[in-house]
Amino acid sequence: MTNPEEEKVTEKKSLNFIEAKVEEDLANGKNGGRVQTRFPPEPNGYLHIGHAKAICLDFGIAEKYGGVCNLRFDDTNPTKENMEYVDAIKEDIQWLGYQWGNEYYASDYFPQLWDFAIALIKRGKAYIDEQSSDEIAAQKGTPTQPGVDSPFRNRPIEESLDLFNKMNSGQIGEGKMVLRAKIDMASPNMHFRDPIIYRVVDTPHHRTGTTWHAYPMYDFAHGQSDYFEGVTHSLCTLEFVVHRPVYDLFVDWLKEIRGEGDSMDDNRPRQTEFNKLNLNYILLSKRNLLVLVNEGLVSGWDDPRMPTICGFRRRGYTPSGIHKFIDKIGYTTYDALNDFALMESAIREDLNATATRVAAVVNPVKLIVANYPEGQIEEMEAINNPEDETAGSHKIAFSRELWMEKEDFMEDAPKKYFRMTPGNEVRLKNAYIVKCTGCKKDENGDVVEVYAEYDPETKSGMPGANRKVKGTIHWVSCVRCIEAEVRMYDRLWKVENPRDELARLQGEGKTLLDAMKEMMNPDSLELRPVCYVEEYLAAAKPLDHFQFQRIGYFTVDKDSTPDHLVFNRTVALKDTWAKAL
RNA sequence: UGCCCAAUGGUGUAAUUGGCAACACGACUGACUCUGGAUCAGUAAAGUCCAGGUUCGAACCCUGGUUGGGCAACCA
């Protein structure tokens, strides 16, 4: 018997506006009660966290309502696209945990789109314009001023037909002529002012080679592709709102020409727009990310500071952490700027539940337990994850000489400092309680060794260990540890809103590159070439996740080898002590 | 001098569709802790952009404004 109160709580969670719309469409029997979505990336770059938001929606809606989500590459511009991107996109979607139904390409529809264009020309709804792009732009008017008709607008149909064929045969140079839909040059919607629907591109296409020279534009490909595939809900971001009337018009024309219904029936895809992701301290524009990579400001698309899916993966972010984040921010029609702290909290929440706890010293100083027998080694038990009893434990070696963090010793400590300071007792995690007796400094006054004495009765697990001490610090054995490189990553940009700041700096006359250099956080990467980690990590493989106790979450980098371990900091632990300072 | 869209604590998202403005992140207390993490308990923080209107009742509907975003690529 379930408690009715409990049931109420579980069904409480509200639908986002898109889910509500889908349910309404379903209730009204639209598209025969079917739900089909698509994720339509252009293969011209790597996917970033903004795409992850779209992916979660496209695949999530299909999953929730028993439909399918297909992957469709919107590959209508061969000058920017290639197969490297196609493969990377597929890898990233799968890593996020989704599997598409079919793999489609807009380029597969070039023949149907061509036929559609021919049909429009024959009906006097499209014409070849031979003006330059400047002339066309000038005639288009502005948002506040109507456009004027092209002198070619009413040329004979036969002429347009002939020239359209020539456009596609390689006889017409790029930019010499275009095919335009004849709609309304005075429309308040700029996209209705006789939009260009085909242009000449001589760059070979990554899939169709040199078969075509005339390529459809986005507006002439997207809605039609959706229609060919049977998409019911075409979800995209808010900047496409103004394209929706064009989308609908072309689908209407297509249906009519093919004799497959009219604008009034329900057998058609519908576009719905949601807010795209904006995150503070993050820059998502593909163009800008490309500059970062090409100019060597980062190590590549998968640099752990990049907001790309592959960058986040290498940084140590997890698919489930990303899902938690996407769930938290939601889908609306408000252009929000999300706080990156929400992203980090989602990642911490996920990693806290799953990451194995280990000891690692990232800023080492030697700790000598003076009264511990020289040469003696003890195997201590270390719990793998206090949040998960089934995670078990592993062994960690204890010895007379240990590595500890420099920050965990202070000669003159403030009152609330619960770590190593002369005369103070501290617990060495999983081992003994020790009392700090002093330190040794070099000629510069820097601490080079810390001294302590242990209480043999206080070994973890023994009755004497129950004594209360305020602080616990981590350590690794000098004789039984592994040297490792640790890369401490932080935010790439020092400004909260890099997009606006970039525009501002460029407005001052700075080049894009200079503006970027000025905005970059000099501490975005701090290399710690010599750190010490416990031996347990010898077997760690790339993308394994760990919590370095008291420091943060780390993953093994792809550069890591058994002889030279490399760890990336995913995100630091919350540090209320640092805040108190 | 256009068209379209939006506006709810610091941030984001809700509000049974016209009925006590709630949740998360963040912040701050305190408890607990062999991680200054986690966990637990609690506090502060919006009266819903503004002005009118409809209504017994408005965050929600209407009118007018304000502010912000989008639209003038042979990009998607």
How would you summarize the topology of this molecule?
Layout: H1 4-10, H2 17-27, E1 36-39, H3 49-64, E2 68-73, H4 83-95, E3 103-105, H5 110-122, E4 126-129, H6 133-139, H7 157-167, E5 178-181, E6 196-200, E7 214-216, H8 218-229, E8 233-237, H9 244-257, E9 270-274, H10 286-294, H11 309-315, H12 319-329, H13 340-354, E10 356-358, E11 360-361, E12 364-369, E13 378-383, E14 393-398, E15 401-405, E16 425-428, E17 433-441, E18 447-454, E19 471-473, E20 476-477, E21 481-489, H14 498-507, H15 512-519, E22 525-534, E23 545-548, E24 552-556, E25 565-572, H16 576-580
Parallel strand pairs: 1-2, 2-3, 8-9, 10-23, 12-18, 16-19, 21-25
Antiparallel strand pairs: 4-5, 5-6, 6-7, 11-22, 12-15, 13-14, 15-20, 16-17, 17-18, 21-22, 23-24, 24-25
Helix pairs in contact: 8-9, 12-13, 14-15
This protein binds one RNA strand of 76 nucleotides through helix 6, strand 6, helix 8, helix 13 and strand 19.
Question: What is the structure about, briefly put?
Answer:
With 581 residues, the protein is an alpha/beta fold. Helix content is 29%, strand content 22%.
Walkthrough of the structure:
The strands form six sheets. Strands 10-23-24-25-21-22-11 form a seven-stranded mixed β-sheet, covered by helices on one side. Residues 1-11 have low confidence and may be disordered. The radius of gyration is 31 Å and the shape is elongated. Helix content is 29%, strand content 22%. Helix 8 (218-229) packs across helix 9 (244-257) and helix 12 packs across helix 13. The protein contains 16 helices and 25 strands. It is an alpha/beta fold and 581 residues long. Strand 8, helix 9 and strand 9 (270-274) form a beta-alpha-beta unit. The chain starts with a helix and ends with a helix. The protein binds one RNA strand of 76 nucleotides through helix 6, strand 6, helix 8, helix 13 and strand 19.
